[in-house]
Amino acid sequence: MITLIIGENSFENDRALARIVVEFDGEAEKIDGETLELKQLPDLLMGMSLFATKRLVVIRNMSANKSLWNSFEAWIGRVSDDIHLILVDAKPDKRTKTYKALQKSSTILESKLWTDRDLSSAQQWVIEEAKKLELELDKKSAYTLVAWVGVDQWALWQALQKLAVVGAVSPEAIQNIIEPNETENAFQLFEAALKGDVRKVQRMLQVFEKTEDPYRLFGLLAGQAFQLATLSIADVPDATIASDFSVHPFVLSKLRPFSRRLGRDGAKTIVAAFAEADTAMKTLAVEPWLLLERALLKAAKTA
């Protein structure tokens, strides 16, 4: 029997594997597929143990071992009936003969990474996971947690572990205990600029210079500037904007007060500042942190 666990969502892959391992009465044999050699396959896939009638063999990342992966097609039909072979691979080449042969003869469990379009699923998931930890998480807190942490399941699971230690959960507790994701960090920086707090902007930039990539941070800030302008110009509900641009409504709700105060002209001025910085980053040999600071200070002056 062969089970193929694929997809880039390592959390779901590990969960799927853990379920199989728990149900197996014995010790799983775990093999690194990248270093596995062809000569080892007979004992691994056809041999039996003196101490067990059934075996569970887990091979990770075999597709990275090109020569072995291409040769494995011939071994698929030779796996012993007493062996449950599990192949775990994030991105196997689906064009290869080996993958096509596995498609016909194995059980395939495929995971996908969540995106901002999966926000509702993420919120429901954290509520269900919290119950397993005997942690009461209402919809408002689930909404806040996903907005604060993002949709990465590993990050959400780790956040729930921390919250379980505290026991009582509220939006305020989440923001005090859990480290925000980089998007939220970028928003806090943008928010400081929109409040005209120049000193805070400069202090935060000094911290970010040690830990963040300036181009990635700039992309997040520019995206938020664009969202601000959209809120100021578009005559549609925030939920429509959130859906059209695949952003969390929570982010827009935090930008909405600034969009009202700045109006169209103020929002356009801020977008123009980021557009100018973007052009300079692409055409001039100027330190990106300097350009990023200049754009934020223009936003602070406008605010």
Commentary on this structure:
- By secondary structure, the protein is of the alpha/beta class.
- It folds into three domains: 2-111, 3-Layer(aba) Sandwich (Rossmann fold), CATH 3.40.50; 118-177, Helicase, Ruva Protein, domain 3, CATH 1.10.8; 182-302, Zinc Finger, Delta Prime, domain 3, CATH 1.20.272.10.
- It contains 14 helices and five strands.
- It has helices spanning 10-23, 41-45, 66-71, 97-105, 119-132, 139-149, 153-166, 171-177, 182-194, 198-211, 214-233, 238-245, 249-283, 288-302; strands at 2-7, 29-32, 55-60, 83-89, 107-111.
- The protein has a five-stranded parallel sheet with strand order 2-3-4-1-5, sandwiched between helices.
- Strand 3 (55-60), helix 3 (66-71) and strand 4 form a beta-alpha-beta unit.
- Helix 5 (119-132) crosses helix 6 (139-149) and helix 13 packs across helix 14 (288-302).
- It is elongated.
- The mean pLDDT is 90.
* Overall 3D form: elongated
Structural class: alpha/beta
- Report the sheet with the most strands, covering strand number, pairing sense and barrel closure: 5 strands, parallel
What is the number of independent domains? 3
Are there runs of 5+ residues with pLDDT below 50, and where?
none
| CA(first)-CA(last) distance | 64 Å
The arrangement of helices and strands along the chain is: EHEHEHEHEHHHHHHHHHH
Mean pLDDT reading: 90
Return the CATH topology of the largest domain. Answer: Zinc Finger, Delta Prime, domain 3
- Assess the beta-strand content as a share of residues: 5-15%
| CATH architectural type of the largest domain | Up-down Bundle
**Sheet with most strands: strand arrangement:** 2-3-4-1-5
* Quantity of strands, as a count: 5
> What is the tally of helical segments?
14
- Percent of residues in helices comes to 55-70%
CATH class of the largest domain: Mainly Alpha
Tell me the radius of gyration. Answer: 25 Å
